[in-house]
Amino acid sequence: MTVRRTAPDLSGKDPNWWRQAVVYQVYPRSFADADGDGLGDLRGVTERLGHLAGLGVDALWLSPFYPSELADGGYDIADHRAVDPRLGTLDDFDAMVEEAHRLGLKVVVDIVPNHTSHRHVWFERALADGPGSAARERYVFRDGRGPHGELPPTDWQSVFGGSAWRRVPDGQWYLHLFASEQPDLNWAHDEVRADFRTTLRFWADRGVDGFRVDVAHALAKDLAEPLRDLGAPEPGEEILDRMPPGTHPFYDRDEVHEIYRDWRRVLDDYSPPRTAVAEAWVPGPRRVLYARPEELGQAFNFEYLQTGWDAGRLRRVIGGSLAEARAAGASATWVLSNHDVVRHASRLMLPPGTDDNAWLLSGGHAPAVDRAAGLRRARAATLLMLALPGSSYLYQGEELGLPEVADLPVAVLQDPIWEQTGHVRKGRDGCRVPLPWTSGGPSYGFGAGGAWLPQPEWFAGLSAEAQDGVEGSTLEFYRRALRLRRKLLEGEELTWDDDAPDGVLRFARSDGWRCVANLSGAAVPLPPGEVVLSSAPLEADGRLGPDTTVWLT
Fold first, then answer.
1. Of 111, 66, 57, 58, which is closest to residue 278 (Cα–Cα)?
2. What is the mean pLDDT of the chain?
3. Are 278 and 210 in contact (CB under 8 A)?
4. DSSP code of 148?
5. pLDDT tens digits, residue range 134-147?
6. Which of 73, 138, 173, 505 has its CA 20 to 30 A from that of 448?
7. Which of the pair, 236 or 57, is modelled with greater confidence?
8. 299, containing H or E segment
9. Which residues have CB under 8 Å from 543's CB, separation 6+?
10. CB 523 within 8 A of CB 543
11. Is the pLDDT of residue 12 over 50?
12. Alpha helix ranges (H) inside 348-469
């Protein structure tokens, strides 16, 4: 094990690099497999860093690579300061960070503070020591209700379905807001807080430039007795709509912000300060609280991802997001795909109101999605996103135009959602299928062997090898867009053109850079200017076709 005694000095680099960065999410188990065992690993990531540098991104965000039994795709962590042996070693991690920095890439890692794995040494000790022990105070253990404690302490539900409580052999119950293999930590416990300060420093000392904070809104909980039931939700009711903001028993409580103010003091001890971005599934006015300079600095904007392909709604979300970020002293964030949602090359083609899960359960056939039309719309959406002020987050494979693999057989599914919900929700495996790097081979260049999830035959035509250097390919389109963005980017302002036709978004950035996105069903004339990039060819008469975005100068 290699131990770095002092943090690398990055003081010569721009401390505000993150404000308008393009960050590429790597889901390591599906990115590249260096040892041929079918599972992506850290050496595989290192070997492919040239792809990211050539793409033109500013940073990579590494999803969990920690020891895990994969009860939730790596988010069930047995040791927050180690590498899963199947993915490599700490030396491999250090080599990856060193190579990333050599290539000019920043490194952001996932940190998962809400819960541990049930195989974490703390939880194993809690089970062994029994009720009333100090070890159990680090988690949320309670006696059950009913004459013999046979009923869960509350009616709280797990995100993955069913009760959020699981009973242990001695009769007590523990809280797990996610899978039962992911017991929730008690963030009112000083030892828990101190341990995560140590974890932040451990990775920052190894050269990590920032952190993505998983389920940032769930750490603080109202555990005062008696615990509160929530009751059955009304159809379409959001979980946070039932009570005043900041008062839900376990989501988005006001006191969670004291935790992140404490973290900011740790992050600011480094030069430059380490960055952080919150995954907080809360309404915009509450989300930006996590993004304040004295807390994490940024928060993911899921409202943008969830808005759909509608010009009016997108303009409202963009305007509101920019205003909220500005008021908080943060920069906005934009994302179209990640490891938890249907890839946007498929999702944006689904009719409004379509249930993503129902579509997945149909194998992607109800309704059928035209792959070419989906790619056209996805490219238009990407070019629109990259023109917006703030940080853009890309998900691995979207630069290849990958759609969702919606027809995975149920026998191969790995996401615990499938079993936890009694085969009601298919889960997220369709966006986690290992990447195709080459047009042939047992796993299209992912590794020397097979892949942990089956890849469809049509991956061959979308591989990086098949698209490299090909004019008009999605890979070359992303490369050109990112090069131009870096050249054109200046300031964080946006000015809307209110004279744009219905269904069209037109806005100006700095120095004459303008973006026009046609979300309507008809071609429209372009304003004066030179087209420097288009997501699809213009019409024969020079007009902007449907589902097409251009940049002009």
1. 111
2. 95
3. no
4. T
5. 999 999 999 999 99
6. 73
7. 57
8. strand 297-299
9. 523, 524, 525, 526
10. yes
11. no
12. 356-361, 371-386, 417-420, 459-462, 464-467
Of the two residues 489 and 2, the one the predictor is more confident about is: 489
In this structure, what token pair is assigned to residue 94?
């250090």
Sign of CA dihedral 96, 97, 102, 105: positive
Which among 344, 272, 377 is positioned nearest to 8, based on CA atoms? 272
Cα(32)–Cα(41) distance, integer angstroms: 6
Q: For the residues of 203-253, what is the DSSP string, one character each?
A: HHTTT--EEEETTGGGS----PSSPPP--PPPTT--GGGGS-TT-SSSSS-
Give the residue-averaged pLDDT of 28-42: 97
Pairing of strands 173-175, 548-552: unpaired
**283 residue type, one letter:** P
Q: Which of 312, 315, 288 is nearest to 301 (CA)?
A: 288
pLDDT band at residue 551 under the 50/70/90 scheme: very high
User: 126 in helix, strand or coil?
Assistant: helix
Can you tell me which residue has the tokens 């149909």? 362
Inter-helix orientation angle 371-386/474-488, to 10°: 10
User: DSSP for 300-355?
Assistant: --HHHHHS-S-HHHHHHHHHHHHHHHHHHT---EEES--TTS--HHHHTTSPTT--
Task: Establish whether the linkage from the previous residue to 233 is cis, with ω within 30° of 0.
Answer: no
| pLDDT at residue 337, rounded to an integer | 97
The tokens of 240 are what? 């946070």
- How far apart, in whole angstroms, are the C-alpha atoms of residue 321 and residue 337? 18
Residue 11 pLDDT grade (very low, low, confident, very high; cuts 50, 70, 90): very low
Beta strands in 241-288 (DSSP E): 275-278
Q: How confident is the model at residue 441 (pLDDT cuts 50, 70, 90)?
A: very high
Calculate mean pLDDT across residues 426-434. Answer: 97
**Alpha-carbon distances, residue 408 vs 426, 435, 498 (angstroms):** 9, 15, 45
Please determine, for residue 9, whether its predicted confidence score (pLDDT) is greater than 80.
Answer: no
pTM of the model: 0.94
100: three-class secondary structure by DSSP:
helix
Would you state the structure tokens that stand for residue 344, as one six-digit string?
């946007």
Is the pLDDT at 5 greater than 60? The verdict is no
Tell me how far apart the alpha carbons of residues 213 and 217 are, in angstroms, rounded to a whole number: 9
What angle do the packed helices 190-204 and 256-267 form, to 10 degrees? 30
